[in-house]
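Archive entry. Fields below.
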Amino acid sequence: MIGIDWGTSSLRAYRVDEQGDCTDKRDAALGIMQVGKDTSFPAALESVVGDWLAAGETQIIMSGMIGSRQGWLEVPYVQCPVTEREISEGRREVTWSGLRATIVPGLACRGPSGVVDVMRGEETQIIGAMPGLGDGEHLVCLPGTHSKWLVLRNRRFVSFTTHMTGELYALLKQHSILGRLMTDAAAPATQLNEYFDKGVERAREPGGLLHHLFGVRAEGLFGKLPHEAASDYLSGLLIGHEIVSVQPPARIIIPLLGAAALTARYVRALTDLGYRPRTLDEDCAMRGLYRLCTGKGTRI
Amino acid sequence: MIGIDWGTSSLRAYRVDEQGDCTDKRDAALGIMQVGKDTSFPAALESVVGDWLAAGETQIIMSGMIGSRQGWLEVPYVQCPVTEREISEGRREVTWSGLRATIVPGLACRGPSGVVDVMRGEETQIIGAMPGLGDGEHLVCLPGTHSKWLVLRNRRFVSFTTHMTGELYALLKQHSILGRLMTDAAAPATQLNEYFDKGVERAREPGGLLHHLFGVRAEGLFGKLPHEAASDYLSGLLIGHEIVSVQPPARIIIPLLGAAALTARYVRALTDLGYRPRTLDEDCAMRGLYRLCTGKGTRI
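PREDICTED_STRUCTURE:
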């Protein structure tokens, strides 16, 4: 089978054999925002995995923004609480040139006060992580441009919230008065420093995010925050605010699912705040696509 | 005397006679960011008020970012708690072509956990508002790109906090995924609508600002927030978060000092949240400059 994790800015393709082993993997900067304009979605797909299709693969499954209004076909959201089976049943089919593929639906969730939230793509990663998580209750964190926190109870998707942490970090660095202080890219995750921790620590204090943000500038003016450390402090401050807002119960284990560099920041912030982070395998999207396509688990 | 309120992006000049009446007023897009590069500060000043100087005005006082590191002369911050007299004593003199002017210092303040905060220019506006405020304790709000909340006790500047509310609103509108939803400029202050109030209301709920921001998008996707109302909702959400973070005691009177259109938004948000806003006169900068220069009050 072929599994496609097709997001806003990139497309990831996996070829998986009947034993559930991933035999090939490709990455292209062909997100749905790049496609829509000049190329069609079928053409974009064939440009990446045309040889796999020519070799006779007929089972194709896609997840992510490809199922959004701006994607190939708008697949209606399924509403939380929801099971893996209900997500699978929410798939819709597209056909082209004698081929067919299914697209996984996203999830919608209504918060306590009725405000809605949405995800597309993360549900598939979580399905891929399900065997590793097991039964019981889990609060899973998926760091990203728009981070997700999901409550899973006995493999049921109960509810989730999205946080604009990653996007706000990029915006503030590139366009705000705070960015002018920042002389350097953030430190690599492996070199996270005490300024990151200070940002996390600051997030626990009263005053609110809007006030804490201005502190990045004021502390810089007084030489208390070196320019090369300001982006690390900001990163810690924002991630800290995200975690504090979610209010996870004290000392719980928090499974993390996402790209390694960003996940390492969440591991550090969660540890600073007294939680026990647990990093899950990065190939969850592939595993989730395979599970939804075949009903079977992949080999781990 | 001549009073100059010289900020990052604009210069406001007031000519005031011996009775404290403002006889002329000018506004130029000659903020310190525009100046530094091509022109000198003396040349910029003379381009705006050269005729007043030629007419023999010799008492000149300036406040705002002109006293910052990027300004004409860096005037050291005075540290809260501080009195009007101590601010006046913190002035520094600049001289050029046989003329002299004094520059008002900014204020610095250390929060409960030692994090520093700063203002330049607002202290002069508050000094101008002092006679209208009177003795006792006041929590004064100055809406702006970087809003300030100041605690005054018996005319003493006790402490303050800054909030990046205005800058973040502009950033999110111009550069974020939320801005893509917004088809229109925010409604004029006089037409503030129920979506602004919904944003304020949302700010009282748990979940945190980073999560509430994503709600602007999700509600838009579900047609619950019309595109033309999204920027009003965002404005209410951010101003609401600012007020909620400050945690003013229930039902107090909150004096407001700032530009009319923005202040009207704060009046509405404060009213939504059960406070009693009180708008102060907009000419406080002029009054403050006059008081600091002459030790006398202006006529009201």
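CURATOR_NOTE: The longest helix of chain B spans residues 230-246.
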